[in-house]
From TrEMBL:
PANTHER family registered for this protein in UniProt: HYBRID SIGNAL TRANSDUCTION HISTIDINE KINASE J
SMART domains noted in UniProt: GAF, HATPase_c, HisKA, PAC, PAS, REC
MF-aspect GO terms: ATP binding; phosphorelay sensor kinase activity
Protein name: Virulence sensor protein BvgS
Function: Member of the two-component regulatory system BvgS/BvgA. Phosphorylates BvgA via a four-step phosphorelay in response to environmental signals.
Enzyme Commission number, as recorded: 2.7.13.3
Length: 930
């Protein structure tokens, strides 16, 4: 094998090849067309555009081989072809002494026939060949040789056009780069392989202080360097050019003229020229102002350091590498040591920290050192030289970390806060004392409320009974006066308790479905009668279309309206007063408005601003009425708790208008109301149990109940007797006092529910402070009556819980073919509530089952939130429908909600459903089938 010789112009040839920028580039369609044509006209299986590099031949285009492949130049046929001025052809390489042992002949592609036309540039450099190859010997015809020669010239033309196009693109990019460099805030320049500056932007000229770019091109820019810095920069630049490496440095620039020297930072990097003259690009920035600012910063830091020394801050610094702690004079003075800087080992500082403070300090210190935090601030104790403890606040910050993130340098300050800590301790003690006083006040109010209500219950109850009796006029007036005084005293107790709750932030409102028309009707009936007694008129106006059921706290809403209407009645001696109920749209949504108007004396403008202040009454002192001055203050605060307000418009001599406005939220009727949609007649034959240890309260309750027609009353004196009585005889309702000997009312109610007793239990108690109602309901009671109780309120509560048909047992037609009752389903209750109406029972049952299943699913999705409220509702409805065991289960979970019992409740609902549907005493099973 004979390798091809190097051409005489090899260096120029390789340079020309580089300028084409075709090596190691992807295939191009324009060149691939030539190889396909060459293969076609010669009938050879392989055609190549082969570029001959210094030690390889690389295939720019290929047919029959892979584009981009290469072989060593020593074994290439093209290495011989580029030496020839015309076509180079080997008819049978196997018989040619130059190629017979060539690897390309002996192995794939097993070349036998080769014909290559050199690709000669206009300047005479042969950069490669257009060649064809075959594994079979052969010889090109004259026409094939001519066509291959023309194709080779075409390839040269394409390569030249390609080079021109690349050059044009580069020039455009260079022009764009030059334009962009003119917009840059830094000086930018480019240099050739010898380090001669080719171009610089205007900023480069300005920073170096030259008059023009032309004056700084080549190496002339060195003349702008300060004479003291020029030799060093010139040597570094020459080394950079020689090594084709990057360079970064700072030097002073000596501008032409009288300007002061400027500090300049230079940075340059070598770039791949790819045929371009540019070999280096660089940036210069004027750092004069930066260095000036740095010096100013250093000066300010020195001033700050001196200021720290002069302050009461103790400065410390910890060098973890040197295991050394620096303590400033301020820090040592903090501990009563001589006021001088210290430099000590870390162990020497341990005695300054008390034993009990060390764990907290060490934990924070480890977090800082390990990189969990970058800064810590900690209040802790320290021990002075005298042994006296002080409190300091220490702050620390990491200045430097090693490569693993662990702190190497930490600085911090410490400040004496002993006076503040002692003041905080005194404040906490004062707050604790105030809390204790508040608790004592609350306990006192609760006790006094109970003690005052107990005798008031007797006074008001007996006066109500006496007022119903036929008494002589003088005695009747006295009884009326006694009743009025007792109620005023009760109102005073209630107002003080309410205001105490509001002031302490302990008053909470419930939000339950409330029958608005019923409440307004009750208020209308009450104030129509009271207005008639006074000889004036009461008017009630309701906007058409008001919703029936709204979500609110009915007790508190009624309380506010009673106060506003009571005031209007009190201050109106002639004319009329009234209540107008409307709705209006607002930015916050729909609002419900209650406007109370009167034709009273009106309120002076100067008194209106303080009217809602506690213990304040407005107007002429001679016109003031009885009262505590708390009513309006409480009313406004209750309105605000409900999301609304009470406002006033008044004109002296013409009357006043107080407006209560609250958010209007409609509500669905309670399940019990839907089931018991028809009004029921109160059962006067009901068997009642009264648990009460006070003889006066026993007497009052007996007489009020008797006046209401209830004669079957059993009285016991403690909770234990109440539990025993319920086990020995059936009762329809229990009135339960809370404060009783032996067993109190709360525990008695819990015991009755535990035993499965599902009859209504009403708290009948003088306990009226915060949480008493909730405590009673949580114990398993159904409702809450506070002593003293109005006869009308007493009657309403009994009507609510004792409604039902007069017959205590189901009618015979209902019990026809009925299965026996069980603790799952007691059909004996059906007659009391539904009579002979099978369709009503079926509808009520399916409504209960549907709503219970939906509510249980929602409760489960909410994680059990609101379980007590749901159990309360299900308990009463289940009892009404005969679900005895389900009602008892719900009663227990209402008192002690247990989310884990959710599945048990769901199972019991289905058992009750099956048992109730099996009851076929109605109009056939089809009525009860879902």
């Amino acid at each position: 094998m004979t390798p091809g010789q190097l051409p005489a112009n090899e260096v120029a040839r390789l340079l020309r090849l580089r300028q084409l920028r075709a090596l190691d580039t992807p295939s191009e369609a324009a060149l691939d067309a030539f190889t396909r044509i060459a293969a076609s006209i010669t009938g050879m299986p392989i055609a190549l555009i082969s570029l001959v590099d210094s030690d390889r031949q690389w295939f720019k285009s290929a047919v029959g081989l892979q584009q981009g492949d290469e072989t060593a130049r020593d074994v290439s046929f093209c290495g011989h072809a580029i030496l020839q001025p015309q076509l180079f052809e080997v008819e049978d390489a196997r018989a040619d002494l130059r190629f017979h042992d060539n690897p390309l002949v002996l192995e794939a592609p097993n070349v036998a026939h080769y014909a290559g036309m050199p690709l000669v540039m206009p300047s005479g450099e042969a950069v490669g060949t257009l060649c064809v190859l075959s594994p079979r010997p052969g010889r090109l015809t004259g026409e094939q040789r001519r066509l291959l020669s023309e194709l080779a010239r075409g390839v040269v033309d394409v390569l030249l056009l390609r080079q021109d196009e690349l050059q044009l693109k580069e020039e455009r990019r260079t022009a764009e780069a030059v334009r962009m460099s003119e917009l840059a805030p830094a000086g930018m320049f480019s240099a050739d392989e010898r380090g001669q500056v080719l171009h610089g932007n205007n900023q480069w000229v300005t920073i170096l202080g030259g008059h023009s770019l032309a004056a700084l091109e080549g190496s002339a820019w060195m003349q702008c360097i300060h004479p003291e810095d020029r030799p060093g920069l010139q040597a570094a630049w020459e080394q950079t050019v020689q090594e084709r490496s990057g360079y970064e440095g700072t030097f002073r620039c000596q501008p032409l003229g009288d300007e002061a020297p400027r500090w300049v930072r230079i940075r340059c990097e070598p770039v791949e020229s790819s045929g371009s003259r540019v070999a280096f690009v660089g940036v210069v920035t004027d750092t004069t102002e930066t260095l000036r600012l740095q010096e100013e910063l250093n000066r300010q830091n020195r001033l700050l350091a001196r200021a720290l020394e002069a302050s009461n801050l103790g400065l410390w610094e910890y060098d973890l590498g040197a295991r050394c702690v620096y303590l400033s004079a301020g820090w040592t003075q903090l501990l009563g040591l001589p006021g001088q800087d210290w430099q000590v080992r870390p162990k020497a500082t341990r005695s300054f920290f008390p034993q009990q403070a060390r764990p907290t300090i060490l934990a924070a210190w480890r977090q800082l050192l390990n990189g969990e935090v970058d800064r810590v601030s900690l209040e802790h104790e320290m021990i002075m030289e005298s042994g006296e403890p002080i409190w300091v606040v220490s702050e620390a910050q990491v200045l430097e970390r090693d490569t693993s993130g662990r702190a190497r340098h930490v600085v911090g300050t410490s400040k004496d806060i002993t006076a503040r800590v002692r003041a905080d301790a005194e404040l906490r003690a004062a707050l604790q004392a105030a809390d204790q006083a508040s608790v004592a006040k609350s306990d006192f109010l609760a006790t006094m409320s109970h003690e005052i209500r107990t005798p008031l219950n007797g006074v008001i109850g007996l006066t109500q009974l006496l007022r119903e009796a036929s008494l002589p006029p003088m005695e009747s007036d006295s009884v009326t006066l006694i009743d009025s005084c007792a109620k005023s005293l009760l109102s005073l107790v209630d107002n003080i308790l309410d205001f105490s709750k509001i002031e302490a932030g302990h008053l909470t409102l419930e939000e339950v479905p409330t029958d608005l028309p019923q409440m307004l009707q009750e208020l209308g009936d009450l104030f129509t009668a009271r207005a008639a007694e006074k000889g004036i008129r009461f008017d009630l106006h309701q906007q058409p279309g008001l919703p029936r059921w709204i979500a609110t706290d009915p007790g508190r809403l009624r309380q506010v309206l009673l106060n506003l209407l009571g005031n209007a009645l009190k201050f109106t001696d002639m004319g009329n007063f009234g209540l107008r109920v409307t709705t209006r749209e607002s930015d916050a949504g729909l609002r419900l408005s209650f406007a109370v108007t009167d034709t009273g004396p009106g309120i002076p403008a100067e008194a209106q601003a303080r009217l809602f202040t506690r213990f304040t009454q407005a107007g002429n002192p001679s016109l003031r009425k009885s009262g505590t001055g708390l009513g309006l203050a409480i009313s406004r605060q209750l309105a605000q708790l409900m999301g609304g307000d009470v406002t006033l418009v008044s004109q002296e001599g013409l009357g006043s208008r107080f407006t209560l406005e609250i958010p209007l939220r409609t509500a669905a009727p309670p399940l019990a109301v839907q089931i018991m949609a028809e009004a029921r007649v109160i059962r006067s034959d009901a068997r009642l149990l009264l648990a009460e240890d006070n003889e006066v309260n026993q007497l009052v309750a007996q007489r009020i109940l008797a006046s209401l027609g209830f004669t079957q009353l059993t009285v016991v004196e403690n909770g234990q007797d109440a539990v025993r009585a319920c086990q020995e005889a059936p009762f329809d309702l229990v009135l339960m006092d809370c404060h009783m000997p032996v067993l109190d009312g709360w525990n008695a109610a819990r015991e009755l529910r535990r035993l499965g007793v599902t009859i209504p239990i009403l708290a009948f108690t003088a306990a009226a402070t915060l949480g008493d109602r909730d405590r009673c309901l949580a114990a398993g009671m159904n409702d809450y009556l506070t002593k003293p109780v109005e006869k009308a309120v007493f009657a309403e509560k009994l009507r609510r819980w004792l409604t039902g048909a007069a017959e205590p047992h189901a009618s015979p037609s209902l019990l026809r073919a009925a299965p026996g009752s069980s603790d799952v389903f007691d059909h004996g209750v059906i007659g009391r509530y539904f009579g002979d109406d099978a369709q009503a029972f079926a509808a009520a049952l399916e409504m209960f089952l549907r709503q219970s299943r939906e509510s249980l699913a929602q409760l489960k999705a909410a994680g059990g939130e609101g379980m007590a409220r749901l159990m309360h509702g299900m308990r009463g409805s289940a009892a009404t429908l005969g679900g005895t065991r389900l009602s008892a289960l719900c009663a227990g979970l209402e008192v002690s909600p247990d989310y884990e019992q959710m599945d048990t409740v769901a199972t019991e609902v289905e058992r009750f459903a099956s048992a109730a549907r099996a009851f076929n005493g109605f109009a056939g099973p089809e009525r009860l089938r879902t």
